[in-house]
Amino acid sequence: MLYRKYRPKTFSEITGQQHVVKTLQGALLGGRVGHAYLFSGPRGTGKTTLARILAKSVNCEKYSIAGKSEKERVLGRIPCNVCASCSSMDKGTSLDLIEIDAASQTGVDDIRQLTDSVRTAAVGGRFKVFVIDEVHMLSKSAFNALLKTLEEPPSHAIFILATTEPNKILATVLSRVQRFDFKKLTENEILSKLKKIAETENIKIEDIGLRAIAKASDGALRDGEVLLSKLIAINGDENNISAQSVHDALGLIPYHYYPDFLSKLAASNGPEAISVLHTLNDSGFDLENFAKEFLEYARKVLITKVNPVLASAIHGNDDQIMAHSSNIDGQELINIINIFSHARAGMRHSPIPILPLELAVLDAVGK
Ligand SMILES: [Zn+2]
């Protein structure tokens, strides 16, 4: 699986979450590492990855402060990834990195076992790091047992609690941890990581396809990496992955329909615009989703028109969006967006879902 192969091993490889990375590295450099952290945020955003890197950093036998790259030098202390401690942590065999999945080990006995182990010193002589994933799943008695340990942790222990649901964590626990909120990754952050992976794997994949994967991942880098793995597997020995095959695999409407549809509206070609709708409908695509994605496309054209500086950030200078933004009149575009926003809202209550879109076409082309 790509997400295991390309799991970051050091701070500089982390995608996004720079607010967390910087604070943690500052603490490492200043020797101010805390004894209890809460990593909270959506799944697939790097919580356990960062927990492992922190565990390696505090235990590394020959960590360096001057990194290879400028970024690493600025950020400071980095694990070497080759010493006995680092490599055993990477392999998952270290006795000083204890990972618990609270979703499956919810009981008080599991936590007792853990709190017993907290008392004994680290094998490597430095820190024993306990990572408790999905900590909100612990039973109440398990939480209470954990709380006792968090109240007076031995100096060699570091707790990293990870959760996707911080609202379920007891206030008494929250008051004893330093909290970091992980954010969903942006489409562009996921895209750039996937691009690097594809390049390293020697896979050629169309930009539109890669962007579709990034978008479908909804902020979770791991999901994007899993999707890319699946696509590579589906394509067999083929090292070329077309946008079409990505769209097919994800069940998405092929991207070209959006610029096509907008071109037909801009050319006041009502019959052809309506026939696009019929083609999609007959192919079994969800028209509500089409309307939403079309609005997103038109919005990108509009934003590019209003402020070209944003073009690379919101769509990576997509050729068709760039062309549309210079060809279509701004007022006409605003008109189209208004008409289709209204139509999309009406689809849910329409006895015939396609009807509001057909009417919108006629309205937009002025017939
Ligand atoms: Zn090391």
TrEMBL record:
Q: What class of enzyme is it?
A: transferase
Which species is listed as the source?
Candidatus Wolfebacteria bacterium GW2011_GWA2_42_10
Keyword annotations: ATP-binding, DNA replication, DNA-directed DNA polymerase, Metal-binding, Nucleotide-binding, Nucleotidyltransferase, Transferase, Zinc
Q: What's the protein called, per UniProt?
A: DNA polymerase III subunit gamma/tau
Assembly description: DNA polymerase III contains a core (composed of alpha, epsilon and theta chains) that associates with a tau subunit. This core dimerizes to form the POLIII' complex. PolIII' associates with the gamma complex (composed of gamma, delta, delta', psi and chi chains) and with the beta chain to form the complete DNA polymerase III complex.
Q: Does the keyword Nucleotidyltransferase apply?
A: yes
Q: Which reaction does it catalyse?
A: DNA(n) + a 2'-deoxyribonucleoside 5'-triphosphate = DNA(n+1) + diphosphate
In short, the EC number is 2.7.7.7
Q: PANTHER family, from UniProt? A: PROTEIN STICHEL-LIKE 2 (PTHR11669:SF0), REPLICATION FACTOR C / DNA POLYMERASE III GAMMA-TAU SUBUNIT (PTHR11669)
- Say yes or no: keyword Transferase present: yes
Summarizing the function annotation, the protein's role is: DNA polymerase III is a complex, multichain enzyme responsible for most of the replicative synthesis in bacteria. This DNA polymerase also exhibits 3' to 5' exonuclease activity.
Q: Which residues form the AAA+ ATPase domain?
A: 33-186
Regarding protein family, the annotation reads: Belongs to the DnaX/STICHEL family.
Source domain of life is Bacteria
Q: Which GO terms describe its biological process?
A: DNA-templated DNA replication
One of its Pfam families is DNA_pol3_gamma3
Task: Name a GO CC annotation attached to this entry.
Answer: DNA polymerase III complex
What are the recorded GO MF terms, alphabetically? ATP binding; DNA binding; DNA-directed DNA polymerase activity; metal ion binding
